Amino acid sequence: MECPDTKLIPTSSAYSSPQSPKSALVSRLPYPPSKRTLSNSLFGSTQYIYYSYQFIFILISSICYINSVYIYIERA
């Protein structure tokens, strides 16, 4: 009878261990964090769009500047 008792103790501990991550997930899921992650994702996307437009503008302006310098050197 002692062997089934020792086998039951690990199964009960293994069965109780999945419950603690579920409770942690439930405690992590209230609405304010989801609102925060939504605002963070929106801010990150706007920041990405802003920096990509800035990079494209700098690229085009540098190409135009190099082109104007090349035309000026050709004239002289």
UniProtKB/TrEMBL annotation:
Q: Where are the transmembrane segments?
A: 48-73
Q: Which UniProt keywords apply?
A: Membrane, Transmembrane, Transmembrane helix
Q: Where is the composition biased (Low complexity)?
A: 10-23
Domain of life the protein comes from: Eukaryota
Q: Where is this region: Disordered?
A: 1-28
Instruction: Quote the protein name from its UniProt record.
Output: Uncharacterized protein
Species of the source = Caenorhabditis nigoni
